[in-house]
Amino acid sequence: MIKDLTTIKVIPSATETLILEFVESDLDTSSISTHTDDTVILSSSSSEKLRTEPWPKEFNIPQFSFETEGQLEKGNAEYTKDQTRLTPTSKMLSDILERLAEKIFSYKAYPSDADLSDVAEALTRKHPCLRQPDSFNESYGWKLRLKTKMSNYRTQLKSHGLASELLVNTLKSKSREDPVPKPAKNNKKARRGEANYYPQTSSENPESLELERISLLTELKKRNNEKTVREKMARTFEFRRKEVVDKKPDIKNLLERWPGLFQMEEINAEFLRVTAVPLLTRFMAQLDKHSPQLLKIIRKKGGTTKAKTAIILEFLDQDADADIRRECILKSLIIYLGERVEDLIKEYMISQKDEAEEELQSTTMALFVFRDNSSLLHQPRDIGIIMNEEIYSGVAMVFGLCYALNMEYPRGFRFTFEALQKIMMELDFNKMTSKIRKLNCELNTAQ
């Protein structure tokens, strides 16, 4: 659905709305391999300040001090022999919690209860001598200790003036926006698995970064200048991200100040910087990976779901290319989750352009598709997304823009975008609604 579309051009319309369309290039998403995900890296001049990995599916317990490791090795041997549990000394306990806190913070500053449960279970799995038979799943006590430790660890970092993502939530910082700030209100922190939701302050002063932003506007007007644009976008990431989170500018304002952010390549790059996960490669690879099982699940469903997906799925039995197959599967997924495809994907014939333009002017957010005929087997003539009266391209790009611009997911598609985030992109996967958890279990049954 996003084949050959990478750059946005701006076209003034008769109304106040700006219409953005993608210009063709050589990108072909049908050739994206399920193995290309690992080759993408963070390309930022300040990447040493950014987290480079999202929260792991399996938490790797770090190495503790030499003394602690020795006691744990001895304790694990005794536990294997006669189930004797080790009671850590205060020094040993302090070492374990300190190392774990550092490791947790390397992924996120505000871990959820589910995250801490993962860590506690990983700890007692690696070191069974630390299991607590009188607590839930023999690791609940460690979870409570970790929760207290992380709170103290954040306080310690704030007292030293470290970590912008913590300092922004102090009462002093909040008082600039709220005359009566509250400690637990309006905290700026990751809620969708962002690794770098509020990145560390750049060593450069804001004035020099503003000059860099202005310079970037000039560079964008030059031909064959992608490398320079890419470098400047990476260099100004922290400056731009804080503007997005703190000031919450509207789309039009962002388009004026950061037009480079609306190029497909830069949406990918910004998503990678924010989440430490590559957007298109992960999205396409995971969709392809889950497609066979997802089709089985959808085809088993009866009632209106079966009736609505029957016509769409017919195209999969014909000679459909990779992009068309993905389109059919995404549409079927939306229907399966009980949401209305026609509210997100609006399809028109080329002959209906005038009618479509009038309807799209009053649409808050939707994917529009123009075709020569009604067959899904032919590539669309034009594709885009209207988001707050602006037009972009592709479901993956909408998802990426929601992260890049710190925007809410489109209304009416709560479950669709939760599935894309937590199943396809594997971001913040520890917390799922019951509907998405059930789908995830069914998908993984045959894995």
Commentary on this structure:
The chain has 19 helices and 6 strands. Helix 7 (206-219) packs antiparallel against helix 8 (226-235), helix 12 crosses helix 19 (434-445) and helix 13 packs antiparallel against helix 14 (322-336). The longest helix has 22 residues, at 279-300. It has 447 residues and is of the alpha+beta class. The chain has helices spanning 66-82, 90-105, 113-126, 140-159, 164-167, 171-174, 206-219, 226-235, 237-247, 251-257, 264-275, 279-300, 303-314, 322-336, 341-344, 353-361, 395-404, 414-424, 434-445; strands at 5-12, 18-24, 345-349, 365-371, 382-387, 391-392.
- Largest sheet at a glance? 4 strands, mixed
- Shape descriptor reads globular
Strand tally, please? 6
| Gyration radius, rounded | 25 Å
Order of helices and strands: EEHHHHHHHHHHHHHHHEHEEEHHH
Estimate the strand proportion: 5-15%
Mean pLDDT: 83
Give the structural class.
Answer: alpha+beta
Poorly predicted segments: 1-45, 388-392
In brief:
It contains 19 helices and 6 strands. It is of the alpha+beta class.
List keywords for this structure.
alpha+beta, two-stranded antiparallel ribbon, globular, 4-stranded mixed beta sheet, 6 strands, disordered N terminus, 447 residues, single chain, 19 helices, 50% helix
List the helices and strands and how they pair.
Blueprint: E1 5-12, E2 18-24, H1 66-82, H2 90-105, H3 113-126, H4 140-159, H5 164-167, H6 171-174, H7 206-219, H8 226-235, H9 237-247, H10 251-257, H11 264-275, H12 279-300, H13 303-314, H14 322-336, H15 341-344, E3 345-349, H16 353-361, E4 365-371, E5 382-387, E6 391-392, H17 395-404, H18 414-424, H19 434-445
Parallel strand pairs: 3-4
Antiparallel strand pairs: 1-2, 4-5, 5-6
